[in-house]
Each structure stands twice: as structure tokens, then as C-alpha cells.
Amino acid sequence: MASGILADGRTQIAMTLSRRAFVRGLGISGAGALVAPAIAARGREALWAAMTAGAAQTAHSPIRLDSNENPRGPGEAAFAGIRDALGETSRYPDRPQEVLREAAARAHGVAADSVLVGCGSTEILKMAVDRFTTPQRGLVTAAPTFEAPARFAERIGSPVIEVPVDSALKLDLDAMAAKAAGAGLVYVCNPNNPTSTAHAADAVRQLVTRVATASPGTTILIDEAYFEYVEDARCATAIPLAMSNPRVVVSRTFSKAYGLAGLRVGYAVGDAATLEALATRRVPDGINLLGAAAATAALADASFIARERRLNGEARAFTRAFFESAGFGVVPGETNFMMVDIRRDAGAFRDACRGRSVLIGRRFPPLPTHARITIGTMEEMQRAVAVFREILKPA
Asked: What is the mean pLDDT of residues 95-101?
């Protein structure tokens, strides 16, 4: 078993290095300067990455398990899309954005006007908060969850109602629905970041029904940033809900499973009129040409996502087995990260890991003893587990 894991790790390292070799081949000026940081810098939480972008990872490099990116980077189809688009970088990205919108529409079996592209799903979330919340009609969100919508709401003076997750660290959908009356927007991150928990499609549908009954003017934004990693068949996408209810919008991103976090590409799916309203808050040409080309090509490579889901699942199972065998509780999840109750201050654990060149997620109140750990390659997780074992061993 161990030899098989190591062999798989070598394969992943070879894949990663070959992708980095492509980036280095572009050079450090012109288009190369645009692409190298975008692919090598795997998350804004790892600040140092901006200064070491493009460098090949070695056995002594920090292991970055802090920002929920794909550790292997984009697939070969995405790289081909970038290569093919390099000669067009002097042009504005209007047509490439439209091609991406049409490709996403085909992928989900909807009309092109039911897709709105944005600068990562972050821009989609900001558009929704700006368009649907006001100082009189606030945002209902969870705690903890992805914080960006709450921050956007606070900046424009919209009230924020935070509903704590339940005892299983899942979104408390009943409580969120109960708080939705009069709200402008309900934000549902499914699977949820940082807890990694996911709700089945039936539960999400019931939430939508309850909100529609109690507050028909409230919009529900369902963030499916990690949907490509979901293995539980019950956790189906909410896109059919969005297509049948103009008060539901689903956001997606290429930042996670597709490995394009640095290129900032996302999109929303929903009713055409609803997306038209969202688009009034959109930054024109917010997606760069290379990002649009890479995302369009990536959508056509279904085998890449299947492979990434498998590799992520294997490394996640290995990591979970370590923590559970050591007596630490792991929250069941459907993402490329896990939440572990280490039974001590998560901030101190993070600092200790950083001191041993393993970067993990920040502390997430109100869960002071839970550490969020992104799943890296199998080789990275083997190295990281050795560090975790040393830090967590009984005194």
C-alpha cells in the first residue's frame, strides 16, 4: 500500500513540474509575467508566494495547505487554451468572454443569457450583495462561512444576520429560513467553507420554498465553489432550482478544482432577467483574455475533473485516517479541505505548523479548536502528516 501511494505521489510531482515547466517557458516578461504568478501563487493567504511565483517546488518548500486551491494546477487543456490565446493579448476580451459564457451554458444545458461571467465567483457574490441588499434589506448568512458577502454588505451599510452552524457544523437551513423575512439576500455556501459540510438537494429545495413563502422578495445565492469535488450523489447542483425560480442564483468558479485561482474566472447561472439585474453591478471586461481562454478549454475536459476528484479523494482519505487514528475528530465533508478538531487552540497549531514549513488555514471563530486543512497532493500530505504527528503528539 505504501509503495503504491509513493508511486502515485511521484506521478503527481511529475505532472506538477511539467505544468510549471510550461509556465517558465513563457518567460518572465510580457505574457509570461501575467501567467506565472497566476498559476504559481496558490492563494492570497500565502503572502510569500507572490515573491516566489514560478519557482519549482522542492522538498524544502513550504507546503501550502491554507487556501483551498488545486495543488496540481490547471490541466493540459487549460494550458493549450492559454497558448492559443497568447497572440491575442493585445485585444480586449469581449469575444473570449462571450465564448466562455456560451461554453458554460452548454455545459449546464441552459441558454447563454442564463449565464453571467465574472472576475472569479467573488465578483458574482459582490454583484449580488450590491444589487439585492440595502440598509433596509440585509444579508442572511452563516457563521462560519465564506466571509466575502458579509464584508461586502457591511461596506454598503446593509445589515448582516449571521446564523451559527448546527452541532454537526452544517448550515442551519431552518434557522436561516426563519431569519429571511424582509432580507434582500440569503447566502448559502454549499458545500460550506470552512466546515466542508454539504446539504442534499432536497434540503436546499426546502430552504428555497420556505424563503419564497415567508419572504417572496428575497433572493437566494447558492455558492457552489466546491461542487466539482462533491462525491455524495444526494448533493446535486441547485442549477435546476435557479432555472425554475428567478429568486435563486447559483455561483460557480474555476478557482478550485479547475486550478485557475490566479486567473480569476467565475460565473453565475440563473434566470435571464435576474442576471441582467446583476450585470448592472458588473465591471466591464472583468475577465482577462487568458483567463477566459483557459476556462473555456477547461470546461471541455471532463476527464480532468474526474481525475482531480479521484486524486483529492485519495489524499483526503489518507489524511483523515491519520487524524482519526490519532483520536481527533474530522468533520465529514465533500471538498478539497477538511475541518479537524485538534482539541487545542487552532491559531497556535497553525503557527507551529508554519514554523515547520506547513501552511494551514487561519483560525475560524466561533470554532477555536478546529483547523482547516487544504488537501494537497499525496506526497504533500505525507510530509504534512509527519509534521502534524510531531506537533500533536502527547507531551
From this structure: 96
